[in-house]
From TrEMBL:
GO biological process per UniProt: attachment of mitotic spindle microtubules to kinetochore; establishment or maintenance of microtubule cytoskeleton polarity; meiotic centromere clustering; microtubule polymerization; mitotic spindle elongation
Bias kind Basic and acidic residues: ranges: 229-240
Native source organism of the sequence: Talaromyces stipitatus (strain ATCC 10500 / CBS 375.48 / QM 6759 / NRRL 1006) (Penicillium stipitatum)
Localization annotation: Cytoplasm, Cytoskeleton, Microtubule organizing center, Spindle pole body
Compositional bias segments (type: Acidic residues): 254-274
Name the record gives this protein: Spindle pole body component, putative
Alphabetical list of InterPro entries matching this protein: ARM-like, ARM-type_fold, Stu2_CTS, TOG, XMAP215, XMAP215_CLASP_TOG
Region (Disordered) residue spans: 229-274, 510-648, 754-917
Amino acid sequence: MADAEEDYSSLPLPDRFTHKVWKARKGGYEDAAKQFEKTPDESDPVFAPFLQDPSLWKGAVADSNVAAQQEGLAAYCAFLKYGGVQACTRSRGATVSAIAEKALPSARPAAKANALEALLLLIELDKADPVIEDLLPILSAKQPKSVAAGLNAITAIYHNYGCKIVDPKPVLKILPKVFGHADKNVRAEAQNLTVELYRWLKEAMKPVFWGELKPVQQQDLDKLFEKAKEEAPPKQERLTRAQQEAMASAPAAGEDDAGGEAGEDYGEDDGEMEPLDLAEPVDVMPKVPKNLHEQLSSTKWKDRKESLDELYNALNVPRIQEAPFDEIVKALAKCMKDANIAVVTVAANCVDLLAKGLRSGFAKYRSIIMSPIMERLKEKKQSVADALGQALDAVFASTGLSECLEEIFEFLKHKNPQVKQETVKFLVRCLRTTRDVPSKPEVKSIAEAAIKLLTESSEVVRSGAAEILGTLMKIMGERAMNPYLDGLDDIRKAKIKEYFDTAEVKAKDRPKPIIAPPKPAVPAAKKAAPGSKKPALGLKKSAPAAAPPPPVEEPSPPPKPKAVPKSGLARPGGVPKSGLATPGGGLKMQRRIPGVGGAAAGSPRRVSSPPPDEPAPAPPPAQPKFGLGRGLTGRPISKTAAPAEAAPVAAPVMSGLAAVERAELEELRLEKERLLKINEDLKSEKTRLSSQVTELQNQNAQLIEDHTRDVLSIKAKETQLVRARSDAETAEQTVQKQQREIDRLKRELTRAVRASAVSPPAVLSDGLHAGVSDNGPLSPETGTYSSNGSRAGHYMGSRLDNRPRSYISSPSEDKENNGFGSPTAETHLDSTFGRRKFSPPVGQSLSSRGSPVRATSRYASASSNHSGEDQPSITSRSAEPAENWKRAAEVTSQLKARIEQMKARQGLTRPPPSAHS
């Protein structure tokens, strides 16, 4: 065995891959994997034999020996990992089908994992379409295990790469087939795949296959979809080789952003995918009516509407193939001016379908159709306004915000308030749905137009303008919108802030991070400024407080030359610091006294040094102030020395007082600013609360009105319910009464039928008209009469005895029934038969046993055995059937009358049986 193994290792790898001995193949797979890992690059010669003959990998991944197959799959993964794109494209056609049939259903977890890894590597290196195309046939395999394994692999592919890398259309089309599979494991894997696709596609996937599923399956999937909605948006977990190279070539600073954006973009784009993206384009031009333009030119509005209905049916597809629709769009634009609103509504619906079906392809028709639609917004009927709004939204979705702003601004200035109102609503919808952040000029134009609308007389327009500004602020940020809101009052700002808080937009303002860095620099500069410039600002502001002294000093400059006031005027500018030129004269020093604020601001050192020298001379400064004007005007220039000495004394005192006063003044100003700010905050809060109170009052009034309306509606419903219940009870009683009447009539009919069956009219008439004699002899042997009359009487008595009685009949009724209402016949029969009426003959009781039918047949046969004298009489008696039936009917009516009387007297109770006298 050792020699054989050495021989195997000495063989070339291609020979070992095709060797008959599985150990040789297994060793070849292991050695190949090791050699692939040691290669420096993709051009190493070790890859050449496998690139030239890719069929070697087909045998490796589908090896008949499971141990060798596991190593073959591992070797193929190493070949793809280190062999690059060329290794993928050369071997893909031979391996994917073999992996799907032999490797994915393997019982070994390692083999199954390697098979799945090989499929993922094939997609990573090149593209997913060929792999999915070769995997789909396994879903039609006969073995359920293979189908389930294929579904599991496809689920893993979508989980790792998402629906942007792997096209979901081919898989969505085959879902109904796998959901109808007989094996429960296959159906379970189909559910997992559907849920994974739903994570990426959401509701957009349903129109493709949802209608072909059973209701139970739809319910199960809906439950799973609800759980999937609660999960985080999916992200691509595995990048393709092209994406990896793009990330590697990106700058180091942008690597993280690029990677994060890549994953986020897949989740967002795929999560918002629409049915249009999954549908195939349809050529609708053959379905467009040929005489469309002729019909639209008809004077009858019904003809125009019918032609537009046909066009609507033709355009009603998820995706429309590109075609020249110029004439159709122009015709639809012309229909917007139609006098009939039904025509306008259908035309708007056609524009909606056409724009949604063409999407970006409809952008070239925007200039033709958009202005006519907006001009028609003057229609006040809500259904027409809604149709026009949907058409505008579809047109906007096919173009963009920048293209539509020109028409929107034009119609925001429209004279018709209804047009202006609907245009404002359309602009709000545009800002909410746009994915492109408006440029700064566009933001400025939108903000200025909305601010102008805030002063409109219509409340709807004013609210719409505030909503425009709030939505725009949501896109651009509060800082970018502050310059446009400075001149607005607090109520309008609060309204805009409310819309800003509730607005939902899709656009992302990416300039924000760029603007953000300067923010920390601005506060830094401000922090440096307060330390040095705040006192200067305070001093400048204190000048008005110190203004009264300068008017007193103003008269001093006139007696002197104009040069003195010029120098005094030059110093407030603060350019040259005159503190160094004290020897110049006392006038200059005295002029600094009123401008202490400015001097102290220029040189604060003098304020700190003089007070310790002479703190006492505080009172003297008042005297120079009063005599300042006179002393300066009356003194000559020769006395400049004395003022020069007094001036330095007065200056420090005033500067010291000014410092204390300035500190107090600064504190007071700060306190005042704080109080003003608090007051403004309280005012804004009060305004906001008052607006909330007003809104709540309105809501409360609306709720009270709704509650009252609901209570009245409930009472009305209750009244209707009570009436309906009473009607139902009355109807039920009527039905029960009728049912009792029917039962009673049925019983009476049954009794009448029994009475007619027991005593036929012909026989009874014969018995009643027969000449029965009272003295007919009775034969003791046979129990019959010896004469014909006695026989007839015997027959009649037997028939009368065997006749059944009704359970509600009384003895008196029994007499009437037996005699048919004829007292003469009853008396005659009673006297003729006597005792035989109650006790029939012995022969009769033995043979008939009380059966009326048998008694009738017996008497009929007995009468036939006698002489022919009786037969003519019987024949003559039976010749009057009609008269006999009339008598029977009369008897029946008499019976009914008597029954009704008995019911009325006895209350439908059966009378107790009494002995028949």
